[in-house]
Write a structure and sequence with these properties.
six-stranded antiparallel β-sheet, 17 helices
Length: about 550
């Protein structure tokens, strides 16, 4: 029996490899690229138009080879894994772990197995493409490698009809495909999900409808176990415990089902990523494969990012009916932008040239206009809207202190129109000065718009509330929970002394201005007992809430 198996392995041929490369040609300034293929019959091509034209031609060249491979019958089941022939260097961090040159690696010396598959690999820089016949396990372990087709199993010579069938692990469920079947690209979200152990089951051809997974009880020989794929990895049939294997197979199906959805569901996607992180971490513990642990960490980060993206754009009112149908609030600021808003408030409190509330309000609004380059544009309507009758006096103070530079006089700045705004300069924010803010152009515009909406709120303007109250409105809006309550969800409001200090008030004066905000329908309630500022933003103000 051993001699027979060895003779069969000797008949196996090397897996074919087609490598298409895109390299610079001639002088770098010329921009010419050269397209070369590892097949001797393919001549080199040169493209003076640059890398874009070369990449387009490379993709066409790869597709031409794939068409010829399909016409020739697809991947060969009797082929050796091309990745194994290269010492598994395509997915092994240490290429010296294998044996270079000489005899082929001894069976079992590398993690290799599964059916022969036809794969295509494209590196992320757009410089290398590789078509290869390799084993399914190496294909699953190679990043950016896509499986296009699976070869039928090779016929082993000398096998009698009454000899026992091979173990399920050697042949995947779709390996019953006949050599005469048409070859078509198979994608992970369209793969059938057969169960092993039923050799008489119909073959899933290119136009077949994927079969549902059937819960077939496993026997002592291992027959009846399901197979599946997740994250371009084939789930081993002998993976233990069974609950882990079933979870990985179910997750692969769930991710493919999510890809077919017509509408995104971030909450569902985050849950899938969290399940994947737990399953891959357990898989790594069982198998000792470090790449699985890295995949688990990526899934954990993907879950966190997905939830943050959802929370950044949408906030849910907590503490409603509890039915799960709470109203959704479209936030003006993302959670990260709200952090930048609070940093801007702290900066203004520490760097305003005068302690008056009117000066601090003007400094805040002008800082948000000039935060990126130290320069910005304002109109007379902006200035009078922020400061009402104090605009001229406040601007004189800022110019005299050297905090603000104007191209003309204060009077000219107050008379400027939208079609001819005044170009202001804030010297401390110029690029050659230390940068107090780390946000970009889009965030700067968002923060400026957020502050403008708060200060120019129609009910605040109608009640002619002063700079102290407007600063308090900004401060409360920047420090809210998702449900609109002031402070973190677990906190008892905000420290009253901190809020009062920002507004240039004494703590016992803050209660009066908080009541003014209640009267202006900015807050639904306000309480300043015990040294804490408690309250909740009115429903109409919730979009301005900066989530803590």
């Amino acid at each position: 029996m051993t001699v027979e198996a060895g003779a069969w392995q000797e008949e196996r041929v090397a897996g074919r490899v087609w490598t298409v490369r895109l390299d610079p040609y001639g002088r770098p300034s010329a921009g010419t690229v050269k397209l070369s293929c590892s097949r001797p019959t393919c001549a080199d091509q040169r493209f003076p138009d640059g890398a874009a034209a070369g990449r387009k031609a490379a993709v066409g060249h790869v597709n031409m080879h794939l068409a010829h491979i399909r016409a020739g019958g697809g991947p060969r089941g009797e082929a050796w894994c091309a990745c194994r022939a290269a010492d598994c260097a395509w997915h092994t961090p240490d290429p010296e772990a294998g044996r270079r040159g000489g005899a082929r690696p001894v069976a079992g010396s590398v993690r290799c197995g599964g059916p022969v598959v036809l794969t295509v690999y494209a590196d992320r820089t757009g410089r290398l493409w590789r078509i290869a016949e390799m084993c399914a396990r190496c294909a699953a372990a190679t990043l950016d490698c896509r499986t296009l087709d699976t070869a039928p199993p090779p016929a082993r010579p000398g096998r009698a009809a009454d000899k026992p069938a091979p173990e399920p692990e050697r042949e995947p469920a779709d390996s019953t495909a006949r050599a005469g079947d048409s070859v078509a690209a198979l994608f992970s979200d369209h793969l059938p999900s057969p169960a092993d152990g039923n050799s008489s089951a119909p073959v899933a051809g290119p136009t077949s409808v994927p079969r549902a997974r059937a819960a077939i009880p496993a026997t002592a020989s291992g027959r009846g176990k399901q197979w599946g794929k997740i994250a371009q990895r084939t789930v081993p049939r002998d993976l233990q415990p069974d609950v882990l294997r079933n979870e990985l197979i179910e997750l692969g199906d769930a991710f493919r089902a999510y890809q077919r959805r017509t509408e995104p569901d971030p909450a569902l996607l985050a849950e899938l990523h969290e399940r994947k992180a737990r399953a891959f971490a357990q898989w790594a513990d069982v198998s000792g494969d470090g790449s699985l642990r890295e995949e688990a960490k990526r899934a954990e980060k993907a879950a966190q990012t997905t939830r943050e993206m959802q929370n950044n754009r949408v906030g849910r009112i907590i503490g409603g009916t509890g039915s799960g149908d709470e109203p959704v609030v479209e936030r003006l600021l993302t959670q990260k932008q709200a952090v930048h808003a609070r940093i801007a408030l702290e900066y203004v409190e520490a760097h305003a040239p005068h302690p008056e509330a009117e000066v601090r309000l003007a400094v805040l609004m002008l800082t948000l206009r000039a935060a990126r380059a130290g320069t910005g544009n304002v109109t007379g309507q902006d200035l009078t809207g922020w400061l009402q009758g104090d605009a001229e006096h406040v601007l004189d103070q800022l110019v005299a202190a050297g905090w603000l530079r104007l191209p003309g006089t204060v009077t000219e700045a107050l008379a400027s129109q939208p079609e001819n705004p005044t170009a202001i300069t804030v010297p401390t924010l110029l690029p050659e000065q230390p940068r107090p803010f780390a946000f970009g152009k889009t965030t700067r515009s968002k923060l400026s718009g957020w502050a403008q909406k708060a200060v120019a709120d129609r009910k605040i303007r109608k009640k002619k509330l002063g700079a102290h109250t407007r600063l308090l409105a900004l401060y409360t809006a920047a420090h809210t929970s998702p449900d609109g309550r002031l402070g973190h969800p677990g906190d008892d409001g905000l420290p009253l002394d901190r809020a009062a200090a920002f507004c240039a008030l004494l703590p016992d004066q803050a209660a009066e201005h908080a009541e003014l905000l209640v009267a202006a329908d900015w807050l639904t309630e306000a309480d300043t007992t015990g040294g804490r500022l408690r309250g909740r933003l009115a429903e109409r103000i919730l979009p301005l809430g900066g989530l803590l």
